[in-house]
Amino acid sequence: MTEAPLPDETRPVPLMRMGESPRNIREALRKAIWIVIWLVFLSSPVHDLVSGHHTTAATVAGWLGLTVFVGIYLTLVFRNMGRAFAATAVVAGLVIGLGALAAVLSLTLGPSWLGLFVYVSVACGTTFSLRVAYWTIPLTAAVMLLVGLHGGEGDARNLVLLVVLIGYAMTGVRQLVRTTVELRKARATVAQLAANEERLRLARDLHDLLGHSLSLITLKSELAGRMLPDHPDKAAQQVADIEQVSRQALVDVREAVTGYRRPRLAGELAGAQVALTAAGVTADLPAEPDLDGVPEESESALAWALREAITNAVRHSGARRCAVELVRCQTLDGPVLELSVEDDGSGGSGTPGNGLTGLIERLEKVGGSLEAGKVRHGFRLTARVPTGAPITPSGHPVGSGA
Length: 402
Hints:
By secondary structure, the protein is of the alpha+beta class. The protein has helices at 25-37, 43-50, 56-80, 88-109, 116-127, 130-148, 153-227, 232-261, 265-278, 296-316, 354-365; strands at 282-284, 321-331, 334-343, 369-375, 378-386. Strands 1-2-3-5-4 form a five-stranded mixed beta sheet. Strand 4 and strand 5 (378-386) form a beta hairpin.
C-alpha cells in the first residue's frame, strides 16, 4: 500500500529555536531575513533621503542619523529580547537616546521620519520590564503626536494606533521567548532528575537483591572457617550453601538487569515523539498501545524495532513525515500484533545492515517476522509478533473487554 506525496502545506518547516542563537548558516540567514522584514517602516525615511528634497549636508546627516538609529535599535531588540537585564541604566539610556534621535530626525527632516517611533515602541516593549513598558509605550505615541504637530499631524494620527499596538505586541513576544527558554531549561532539569531517580532506584534494587545474599554468604563463610579444622563435613555443607546462595544472587541480578534493559513499547513511542519533533519530522503515532495478551519478550522485540525505525528516519533517511501504526491482525499462523513504521525519506541502500539483522534475530526468537523496504513514496518497516489471545471480528483480543 502506498500513499500520495505530502502536500507542501503539510511539510514541516524547520524553525529556529526561540531564545537561542543561530546554530548554523541557514538559521543565521533566516534570522537576518526576519530582521529585514521588520525594517519595512524605514522605507519612508530612505525614500525621503534619495528623493533629493534636502541639501547635501542634510542628506549626509540624515543617512548618518538613520544608521546610528538602526544600530542602536538592533542592539537593543535582538540582543536583549527574552533576557534578564543586568545593566538597566544602560538599556534605559539607549532607549531614551533612540527616542530622542527619532524626534530630532522627524523635526529636522520632515513627517516622513515619524515611522521611526514604531521602532522606539518596539524597543520599549522588548527591553523594559512589563510594568515600565506599559507606560513607556503610550508615552512614545504621545511624543510622536507632539512631534507631528510640527508639520505632520495627519501622519502622526495615522501611526499612533500602530505604535501602541505593536509595542504591546512585542511585550507578548518577549514574554513568549523568555517562557520558552525557561521551559527548555526546566525540561533539561526534569530529564536530569529522572536520570538521577533511575540510578537511585537501581541502587535500591541492587541493595535489596544483594544485601541479604552477601550477608548470608559472609556469615556462612565465617562458619565454614570455624568448622573446617574439626568438622570438615559440616564446613563442606556450608560451602555448598554458599555456592547455592551466590548462584541465586547471580540469577536475581541478571533478571533485574534484563528488566532494566528491556524496552517498553509505550516508552519507545513517547521517545519517538520527542525524537521526531526535535528533528523537525511530522509524527503520526498511536496514543496508547493495546498490549493485552502480548508477552513481555514480544513487546520488547517490537520496541527494539520501533527504536531502529525511528533512528533510521531521524538520522539517515532525511524524512519529513513519519507514521507509526500498531494493529492486531489474524493470519494463517494465528493472531499477531503488527507494528508498521513508514516515512517519506530515502530509506536504506537495500542491503540489511547490522540494525536490521539484529532485529530479525530478536523477532525470530519470539516467533515474529520483519519486513523492510522501499515503497513508492518512502521507506516502510513492518514487524509482527504472535499474541497469546485470539482476535475477535472487531479486531480486539478475546477477553479484553473491548
